[in-house]
Every structure is written in C-alpha cells, then in structure tokens.
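INFO worker-7 received task bundle
INFO bundle size: 2
INFO processing item 0
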Amino acid sequence: MDVDKVKDIRKKHEDEEAKQRALAPKPKIDKNLSVIESIKVRCVDCFIKDRCPHFDAKTECKFKTFDKSVEGNAKEAVHRLLVLQIDRINRMSLIEKFEGGYADSTLSREMDRFFNLLKALKDLGDTRDTLEIKAKGEGVISRIFGKFQEGEQK
C-alpha cells in the first residue's frame, strides 16, 4: 500500500474520531457539590468550563477540594483522601465490570494506594514507641543477645 494512502486513511480516521468526541455528550457536574471559598483558578482557564454549573467568565472557581479545617490536621487530611480513593475505586470497579470483568491494572494501583493511605492513617494514630532491629548474616543476633534455645527462658 502506498505511504500517502496510509496517511490519508489515518487522517480521515483521526478526523472522524475528533468529530465523534466533539459530538459526544459532556458529563454534567452536580450543582449540589459544595461551594466553598475560591481556589484561585479562573473560570475562563478551567478545562471543565463548558459543563460547569457555576461557570462565570469574570470570576474564580467556587469549588475547593479541601477547606481550611484540615490545615495542620494530618489525620483529617488522610481521612478525606481515603474517602476520595474509595469513590475512585468504586467508579473504576464498575467500569472494570462493564469492560468484561478482567482485572484492570489502574484499579489495582488505586486499591494499593488506598491501603497505603489506610496504613498511613493507622501510623498517624500509633503513639507506641518502637525499636526495630534488622540484621543479615549468620549468628548476628546470637552474638548480640547470646544463644537462645527453643523452650529456654531468660
């Protein structure tokens, strides 16, 4: 096949895809999302301006991801991130089911991220003192602490 023909076919295909994307219905944003103080993003620069219920070309964004109540409160911030992750996981899980139920690596990474955040939240609340000793090599621990036979008590 001629190289120019391949380019023409590819160009037609890309044009058709662009038309379909432009005609596809845009998801609507829920007007009931919390409207809090501005996050300093101008509406005219926002990538969702064409479907935002609060769009006003003369203002800044009325949505905010976190309000000031989490400043200095790591536990509350991690908790809110966990809620966000759960929402992501739920949506992605539904998409995975619609796509035939095959394991999706992106969903798996989001689940791993959720459990890492959960561990971080647990660690933030752990006030115990800990001592961790790691040693490699044969007999390193016994040289430090002495020999200990099973059943023996010191």
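INFO item 0 finished
INFO processing item 1
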Amino acid sequence: MPPEPRSRVDLNGDDFARHRESRSFRPFGSQADWLWQHGRHRPPPSHLWLSITKVYGRIYLVTTIYLVQHGDKERLPGDPGLTELGKRQAEVTARWLRATGLQAVYSSPLRRARETAEPVSQATGLAVQVDSRLRERLNWDGTQAFGTFLAEWDRSTEDRDLVLSNGESSRSAGERLRLFLAGLAGGSGPVAVVSHGGVTVDLLRNLLGDEGLPPRLIADGIPPCAITTLDDLHVGGIAATGHLTGL
C-alpha cells in the first residue's frame, strides 16, 4: 500500500522560501499531493477534501478546485450544445466528481458548459451557479466565416496581448478566470468549475508560463471533459482524462 499523504508540513523559513519560489510549489498534504503520488484518476480520501496546511507557524485552508472542460460540442456557430458523445462524457465525469465530495458547482453561461455541469448537479444535489467570468476567450457566433474566426483565434494565441473584437486578449481572459478562482480559495471545497479550453489554457499560461505546460497543449488544446486540478491557485494536474477511459 502506498504511504498516506501528509496532512500538513512544517517548513523553516529557508525551506518555505525555496518551495514558494518554485513553479512546482504546491501545499503539501493537499489533494494535489495525493494526485501526484497516486494517479489523477483516483479520488483522494475524504480527509483531504479541504486540507489544512501549516507553514511557518500559520494554518492555511486549501480549497481544491476541479476545472472541468465542457464535453464534446456540436460543430455549430452561436451557442451549441453537447453531442451524444459529449453527454456521455459529462455523465462519466459527474460520477467521478460525485466521489470527491463536492461542495459547489459553477459553470460558464454557454450552453455546452451548462449541459456539462447539469449531470454534476444531478449527481450531487448541488445547484449549478452560472458565472459569466467562466466564459470562453472568444466564441464563434456565425457572423464571420469560420476560417476568419480561426485566424483571429490563432493570432490572439500567438500574441497574448492582442485585443480581440470582444475587447479581451489571451492574457486578460486568463486573468479573468484567475480572479474568479482566487475568490474560491480558502473556502469550503472541493468545487467543480466548468469552463472552456481556450480560457483554461490562458489561465495556465499566466500561472505557469508556456515552458511549464505539457508539450502540444497550446496547439492541441484541452480534451473534452478533461479535468485540471488546482489547490487554490497551485496547479496539481493538467487536463487529466483517466476518468474517461472506455468511452
């Protein structure tokens, strides 16, 4: 049997400074610690749902956030919903999330995200809380050719400060999502947050830098219903899909 993760850690000042400056720093004894040790497809034990980390003589509450990519969507402009595959992905994801002891479910207002969040709501009995800060960086509304939309998307991905027609850039979209997640930190958890691939990658680029991301993530994006795990704003796992095995 693998050793049980530590529930807290005491660091001296030098150790804390060294760990805090590292891009890989995350609070020990949290769900991220469990995920790194035991594989991202397994829910952590219940005593790690809201972990307490003791650092430098102080107690910090650490909220685990499951940032969920919406399921496979219909290839339509405007506000498309999920395909049949996407609905199955959402159901499987909901069952996995139910085992983690969720305390809240949040969703982007776009239909594909809400249709992904609804099975989570049904599985847990938690109401979906819709928040516009979880929307995508840019959404194809059909007023321009799809090729034109893709070209604008690609330009904004390459030039992170390029302001798009909706008034946002890749960097500002990532900051929008970061501010939302920061508001959840230290609260009751874990929580599920259903959002979109573009803005999730924007967030990760802001938090980790491009060099800290898995190869091809920027080019290929986040797979449908993949789960990115954060302890507060410390990234513990990126775009995990182990819970979808067999679909």
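INFO item 1 finished
INFO post-check item 1: The chain has one domain: 64-244.
INFO post-check item 1: The longest strand covers residues 58-69.
INFO worker-7 idle
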